[in-house]
Write a structure and sequence with these properties.
Elements: E1 5-10, E2 16-21, H1 27-37, H2 41-49, E3 53-55, H3 69-74, E4 79-80, H4 81-85, E5 92-94, H5 97-107, E6 111-116, E7 119-124, E8 137-140, H6 141-148
Helix pairs in contact: 1-6
């Protein structure tokens, strides 16, 4: 079973553009990938422009045969449903973080990532924190990663 997540960006006009990511959505993988390799706003835009993601990796990369898992791994690149498998381009737009969270909770296992104001955040809904009560708000991704280390 996959650990699903959502990845989004808050634009300057207040719109949240979001995509679904099927695999390895937990903090120790997708969280680390986003924190380490997707800090540049233009790279975040390029990632989201590809639509829904099968597997996140260091590089956005180029079109490859969708089922060639070994080749994707060798190139450390993302696998996208639209570019690599030829599905319709899929992403969602929301006018508020509440709308985004509601949608994300319906498609993901609780790992909800948001790039805003030049930094990554993750929604703390009980999956993020390993102790105490969940805050039910966005927390800085770097802080969440530190707490789970």
């Amino acid at each position: 079973m996959a650990t699903r997540s959502t990845i989004a960006k808050l634009s300057k006009d207040g719109i949240i553009k979001a995509v679904y990511c099927h695999s390895d959505g937990y903090l120790e993988y997708n969280g680390k990938m986003l924190n380490e390799y997707y800090q540049d706003e233009s790279k975040v835009d390029e990632l989201l422009a590809q639509g829904d993601i099968s597997f996140l990796n260091e590089n956005i990369g180029e079109k490859l045969p969708f089922d060639d898992y070994k080749l994707f791994a060798e190139k450390n690149q993302c696998r996208f449903y639209h570019r690599d498998r030829g599905e319709d381009l899929m992403f969602n737009e929301f006018e508020s973080d509440i709308e985004y969270i509601e949608w994300a909770n319906g498609v993901a296992n609780g790992f909800i990532y948001l790039y805003a104001f030049g930094a990554w955040y993750v929604y703390d809904n009980g999956f993020v924190r390993t102790y105490g009560n969940a805050s039910h708000k966005f927390v800085e991704l770097e802080e969440a990663l530190y707490e789970t280390a």
